[in-house]
Structure to design on (143 residues):
């Protein structure tokens, strides 16, 4: 990562056994009260996957152990100084996260019953038909 450039990442966590997705409610930060996904900014020379693994453990208090992880979208700011990578991440089962101080709540829902209001960055990815098609395709891999 070049000086002055930031990389961020996040994942839509999907439980294979139920077909539902994990949402986190933000607190004490920009967009407090909105619902988002696990993730954050990369530190030092972390790759997006390394940053996601670290953020997952920090925010959810559970080991990073995906069944499957697939990139689904990449946002690049107009000035090209910020890039955000969004992933689809499948886990075997729903779990009760041990939230850190970045979030006040969580829920597991289907894609069509996602909580509101969504964080604007997360809301934006659902506005792309190609992203929704990917999620629907990937989400078929549950019992």
């Amino acid at each position: 990562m070049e000086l002055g450039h930031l990389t961020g990442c996040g994942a839509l966590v999907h439980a294979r056994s139920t077909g539902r997705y994990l949402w986190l409610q933000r607190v004490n930060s920009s967009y407090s009260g909105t619902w988002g996904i696990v993730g954050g900014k990369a530190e030092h020379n972390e790759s997006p996957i390394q940053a996601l693994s670290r953020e997952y453990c920090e925010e959810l208090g559970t080991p990073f152990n995906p069944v499957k992880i697939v990139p689904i979208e990449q946002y690049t700011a107009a000035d090209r100084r910020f890039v955000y990578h969004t992933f689809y991440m499948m886990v075997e089962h729903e779990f009760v996260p041990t939230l850190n101080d970045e979030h006040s709540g969580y829920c597991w829902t289907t894609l069509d019953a996602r909580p509101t209001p969504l964080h604007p960055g997360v809301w934006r990815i659902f506005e792309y038909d190609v992203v929704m098609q990917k999620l629907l395709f990937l989400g078929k891999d549950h019992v």
In short: The chain has a mean pLDDT of 92. The longest strand covers residues 6-15. The radius of gyration is 14 Å.
